[in-house]
Fold this sequence. Notes:
The complex is a heterodimer of chains A (about 350) and B (about 350). Chain A contains 15 helices and no strands. Chain A is globular, with a radius of gyration of 24 Å. The longest helix of chain A has about 40 residues, at about 200-235. By secondary structure, chain A is an all-alpha fold. In chain B, helix 4 (about 115-125) crosses helix 6 and helix 4 packs parallel to helix 8 (about 190-205). The longest helix of chain B is centred in the middle third of the chain and has 18 residues, at about 220-240. The interface of A and B includes residues 247 and 261 of A.
Amino acid sequence: MIRLTRTQVKIAERILATIxxxxxxxxxxxxxxxxxxxxxxxxxxxxxxWTSEEEMAALRDEMGLDxxxxxxxxxxxxxxxxxxLGYSMIRSRPVAEIIREALPATIELAVFSLLxxxxxxxxxxxxxxxxxxxxxxxAGASLSLLGVSLPAFWLGIVGVLIFSMxxxxxxxxGRIAYDAQPAHIxxxxxxxxxxxxxxxxxxxxxxxICLPAVTLGLGVAAVVARVTRSSMLDVxxxxxxxxxxxxxxxxxxxxxxxxxxxxxIPTVTLVGLQFGSxxxxxxxxxxxxxxxxxGRVVVDSIFARDYPVVQASVMVxxxxxxxxxxxxxxxxxxxxxxxxx
Amino acid sequence: MAYPCAKExxxxxxSGLYTVYPSARGMVQAVRNVSFAVSRGEIVGIVGESxxxxxxxxxxxxxLLPSPGRIAQGQILFDGRNLVDLSEPAMRSVRGKEIAMxxxxxxxALNPAHRVGEQIAESLRVHGGxxxxxxxxxxxxxxxxxxxxxRLWKRGLSAVEERRYVIxxxxxxxxxxxxxxxLEYPHQFSGGMQQRIMIAIALACRPKLLLADEPTTALDxxxxxxxxxxxxxxxxxxxxxxxxxxxxxxxxxxxxxxIAVMYAGQIVERGPTDAVMEDPAHxxxxxxxxxxxxxxxxxxxxxxxxxxxxxxxxxxxxxFAPRCDLSEKVCLEEAPSVSAIGQGHEARCHLx
Lengths: 341, 352
Ligand SMILES: Nc1ncnc2c1ncn2[C@@H]1O[C@H](COP(=O)(O)OP(=O)(O)OP(=O)(O)O)[C@@H](O)[C@H]1O
Ligand code: SF4
Ligand SMILES: [Mg+2]
């Protein structure tokens, strides 16, 4: 008999609770996809195509598209519950395989965007709060405004124009040069390059990820900076900060040990929310930079009415949102001992 | 400024201190020409109503005035050094080590994100260890082991020793089960226990002087008495001098060797507790006494009527004049200076 702590039980509960959620999301995605005009066969064959009505009917029969909708849904749910995500109607490959290939690229991009956002947003926010109305504060405020208001597609294109086309520092698109790929371990090329100690691959992959990560992360960096600034301003006027100084704690440590940790609580909420949208909202950036991630798979599949792929991807998105939420809540309990799961 | 009974070895000697907060309303004169002394081992009470500059005075001593507050003039001699002139790093090694401070509201003064044991230990760490005798084993500290241990303390404590000392401190301030509770967080303690933890933090480095800014105001009455008793015991056992800031004259009377009464940024009367309580010289002190409930006395209390003056906008005369029932013409025109009443007893009033 394994004994679990209360926290572990709570975590297990929340993970199990994602199963009905995933099914619900699958149903919604199913219904929405069917509500769109045209089906995969129409799209594949194109309008006014040479294919005869009989051939198209045969294809629909093969894909199970001639069954009544509720029967299709029922069959789909049964398969999903059995752990089978189905077969792509267009790519003739198992959906699970497609997702397994694309998801690591998306996670990698989201993680790097987030790292960029934190690395820029937190120091700017802290510096702005420590010296309100200083140059850093004003510059941070203006840049934040730009960061949240510039659309990603514009930023991405300008970035490519400057850094790839004009200066030639960075590649225009893709994830890694074909001949630089490291051995496949996790599917995240940067991680794989680090694990295998493959420095050329690492350098190449980092060059590729720079522009997309900055494009995707800039807006988040801006919001992180604003939220960190305001929570830091609250915290530094707290009594316990003054008390820490009265203990003789040096100013730098007062900021790091006493202020930052408490100020991070609102930032963590924000990061949890934003990380979900970095994972799920990067279709545009993936498209601009030819990033072979889930966002692009979803866009392509929607256009092709590739029902099983879209449904499965949407489920993956929903699950990542829930898991990120859980991770956020766990980080909370670490930062604020008053909170428990 | 004359000290009628200048103690031979005053630990703290504040003289002619002015502290100001520049503000939109004008220069707020939070502390005006304050002079007082604290001898080693003495307990001094500073009494006054809200906004009279008590906290500003303590923060000036700690060098922790929140900006834009600053010391405009004056001297704060502590153990032979003028704290006003000390550099920030030098001041930091005084803070928490030689002069410690306890805040009013333990609920907000303890960091909610750190374990209490950790917060106590931090004081030790920033000052690089503990005074030898403090580990509670003055006897064992001698001999070879003691020598090694003393060397360790010079460089900071080992984790085990640090924890032992933290637990010892918690036990000394009356926290039950310290060996478990040092791992808990502030919100898991009651207000009184939190205040004891704050006192433990303040005492960790065995300071010579403890500044307590209304340490019991946030607590229940019964708990107040316990915390005051604890501080009195600490003073008796360790000889730590205490400056107790309070707005409650009764508390100061019970607890302090001498009392300074503050009004509108000035000390208007100070002297040994008995002298001030039995022969209050300043009309404000007398007013405070009349507004103080006395057990078994059924006479109605007489609160002091009127409002405290605006410290950004002070007139030329005695700042208590608008509320003083003895006020005369001279009181409105000329600020009173300090006059001696008795042994170490003085007041700032024209009528004395
Ligand atoms: N940061 C500040 N800026 C401007 N004025 C201030 C500031 N802090 C305090 N003051 C003013 O200085 C004066 C003294 O304040 P102080 O906090 O020392 O009073 P106090 O005696 O400690 O009162 P309490 O009993 O309420 O704690 C008050 O008039 C207050 O308004
Ligand atoms: S100087 Fe005058 S107004 Fe001021 S306290 Fe004394 S009697 Fe009252
Ligand atoms: Mg105060």
